Amino acid sequence: MLSNNERTPQVIRNAMLKLNLDGDPDAYTLAQVLPDREMVLPANANVYYAVNTAYNLNFILRPRKSQQAEPVANGKPKNKRN
């Protein structure tokens, strides 16, 4: 169930509880599965209004991709202006 005032972080927390997942809800993303792609819901969206109801309400909860690692040389980040 989803109420009309739940934001993405709360929906992720509820899904994690249902799935018995531990961890930080901020480390996950929520996406609706559409026929030709996935629509990742923005971090502070009102999920009730953000979903596309023209399609099945199938969702994926997955760990957020980590930030791109900076190139490292000798233990220090490389200067990109070289």
TrEMBL record:
Domain Ras-associating: 1-66
PROSITE patterns in the record: RA (PS50200)
Origin superkingdom: Eukaryota
InterPro entries found in the cross-reference section: RA_dom, Ubiquitin-like_domsf
Listed GO biological process terms: signal transduction
Protein name: Ral guanine nucleotide dissociation stimulator-like 1
